[in-house]
Each structure stands twice: as C-alpha cells, then as structure tokens.
Amino acid sequence: MRKVMIAGNWKMNKTFSEGVELALALNEELKDGTGDVEVVVCPPAVDLKGVAEVIEQNDAPFGLGAQNVYWEEKGAFTGETAPDMLTAIGAGYCIIGHSERRGYFGETDEDINKKAKALMAHGIVPISCCGEPLEIREAGTHVEFVVNQIKADTADLVIDDPAKYVIAYEPIWAIGTGKTATADDAQEVCGAIRETLVEIFGAETAAEIRVLYGGSANEKNIADLVAKPDVDGALVGGASLKAPQFAEMVKNAQ
Ligand code: PEP
User: What DSSP string runs through 57-93?
Assistant: First the structure.
C-alpha cells in the first residue's frame, strides 16, 4: 500500500532564520498529525541544519530533504554536497533531476542516475523528477518523452525497498505558472510511468514506488490529483512556502 507523500520544494527561498521560522510554523500547523500522509520539506542547503534542529527538538511530523547532491563520496568538488554530509545533518530525502537543475545547470539523465545510486547506497530517499517541456506536450509525444527519461534515470538501479525510491512527474509548463495539469493529464503520465516501472522492476516493486505529481499543485487541487490511481502525492513549490497553505494541502491529501 503506497503512502501518500507531500513534499515541499522551497527552492532558493528562505534565509536560515526564515527557514527555521517556516519549519516552526509548519510544526505548529501540523500539531494534530498528518494522518496517513508522509510530509517532507526540502529547504536550501544552508537551511538544512536549522530545519533539522526544529524537527528534532519538536519531534515535528515531517521529514527533511535536500534539493541536490553529488554522487562522489568526498574530495575536490567545490560547491558540491556528498550523500554522507546529508545523512550527518539528518536529511533522509533528496530531490534530483528537477527541471530547473536540468535546464539551468545542465543536469543529465546520466547524472540523475548516478545521484540516485549514490543516495540509495546511503539510505537517502531520492525524489527523482521527470517531465516534458511545452513543445513536447504540444507535439503529443509527452508520454514517450517521460518514459524515456524514466528508463535512463533508473538504468541498472537496484531497488531493495521500493518505498524508498520516489518519482515526481512535473510537466515543465505547469511549474510555477499556475497552469496545473488536470488530474486526468497527471494520471495519463503517472500511469505510463507505473507501466514502465513494471517492465523494469516487476509488478511487485512497481506497485510500491510512489509517483508524485508536481506543477502548481495546491490545497485546492490536491484531492482530485491524489484520487487518481497512480498519483501518490505531490512535489510542491510555491504552495510549500506558507505554512497554513501547505498544512491545508496535507490535510486535503488525506
Ligand atoms: C516544483 O518546483 O517542483 C514545483 C512543482 O513548483 P510549483 O508547485 O510552484 O509549480
């Protein structure tokens, strides 16, 4: 049985003290618990330690994720963060392959595949993003495009615990634009991702891998999205930056 996940991607927003404030506010909003929903926040790297302390000191009902990682263990890789470093500050999740990293920083499917393997070797849950740009959607080849990303991103990946590998389908044209894919659009692609996972990993493993939707998801549309059979939650940008709105989204995802 897949547990719904709502993961907040704060992107490059919130200074250290603002991040701590947001985490404290979210803890307060979620004080009655999150029901059956697994909640994760992914602050900027320099905020991780502060948010980790909020979670630890308050026994907060959400997990901590990073927004990026490098696949090497250590060494001369200026500006990068190793999986071990994330584990050491209590981050149990990490976004990889976000379209902003693919688009602005040239992250490739090969990089994403290496990052997933490195994270999983350290017990960190990858939240691995995929999704098509507008021109591919308009050409009608979006399913094929995303299926090819999934195949490349999971090449030779060994999944021992399918609950610890998460995919986020994020059509690029819907990210930060206010244009949400309809729940049926999301299901079309998330369903195709599931079929691809069945081909790659077998039915039993594929049935336990969560496939999230991302792209202008919010407290108003989340219930329709998670009602679809292959949509297991959301990766959330804008709507994760205000504690009451994000908490409402968690509530409506239950
Ligand atoms: C995201 O960045 O992963 C995202 C889905 O952003 P937004 O919710 O703002 O569209």
Answer: HHT-S-EEEES---SSSSSS-TT---HHHHHHTT--E
Q: Which DSSP helix (H) or strand (E) runs through 169?
A: strand 166-169
- 89 CA to centre of ligand 1 in angstroms: 25
As a whole number of angstroms, the distance between CA 102 and CA 168 comes to 14
Q: Provide the token pair at 236.
A: 């959330």
Query: How far is the C-alpha of 225 from the C-alpha of 218, rounded, in Å?
Result: 10
To test the ligand 1 pocket, which listed residue (5, 41, 132, 170) has its Cβ within 8 A of the most ligand atoms? 170
Q: Running along the chain, 254 residues long, what does each successive block of 10 average in pLDDT? A: 96 98 98 96 98 98 98 98 98 98 98 98 98 96 98 98 98 89 96 98 98 96 97 98 98 96
Q: What SS3 class is residue 83? A: helix
User: Which secondary-structure segment (H or E) carries 94?
Assistant: strand 93-96
Q: Specify the pLDDT at position 211.
A: 98
User: What does the block give as tokens for 177?
Assistant: 């634009």
Cα 183 to chain centroid, rounded: 18
| pLDDT for 163 | 97
Distance 242 CA to ligand 1 centre (A): 14
pLDDT at 235: 98
- Residue with the smallest CA separation from ligand 1 atom 6 is 237
Q: For ligand 1, atom 1, which residue shows the shortest CA distance? A: 237
Domains observed in the chain: 5-253 (3.20.20.70)
What does the pLDDT read at residue 176? 86
